[in-house]
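In this supplementary section we document a worked example of the pipeline. Step one takes a protein sequence of length 188 as its only input; no multiple sequence alignment statistics are reported here. Step two produces a three-dimensional model, which step three serialises into structure tokens for compact storage. The input and output of this example are shown verbatim.
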Amino acid sequence: MASTSDFKNGLIIQHKNNLWKIVDFQHVKPGKGGAFVRTKLKNIKTGQVVDETFRAGHKIEIIRIEARDYNFIYSDNDFYYFMDKETYEQISIQSNFIDKDISDFLAENTPVTITFDPNSNPVEIRIPSHMNMEIIETDPGEKGNTAQGGTKPAKLVTGAVINVPLFVQEGEVVRVDTRERKYIERVK
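The serialised model returned by step three reads:
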């Protein structure tokens, strides 16, 4: 058993019969009374985010998770299919488990990291924070448009829509920040 002094962002704990990921925490020592830890927890299965307060020294159960590297292969209506990079073994994960923020950037052969709980159930899917993606649809740019001139929507090869500078054209490859869904630069 661990205690609140072991808290760190990204830690998976067992709390109220569910798995929770610590998104943020703050140790508080008021002038009067005992110290406590204020946390923001995200439910692994539902994605619900709650604020929770623990007394300093409160005992918690840390869940050991295993992370493995996979390549995304393809998806159908119900499942997403991934291949283990080392063993070439394929696994399928139900589509309702995968957040739209992640599925919007899953193109064929995208490297992903999948974490598993001790029972080998998938807990979380992580994609690279920056990816190079082709633009398949956007309004035409005009001569003289600059990076400071404004933005326009552009559809990526995966179907996600981001805002790009006016000079970016269809067929170009751009670097995208997947966490903030933002254009970074053109890839030459």
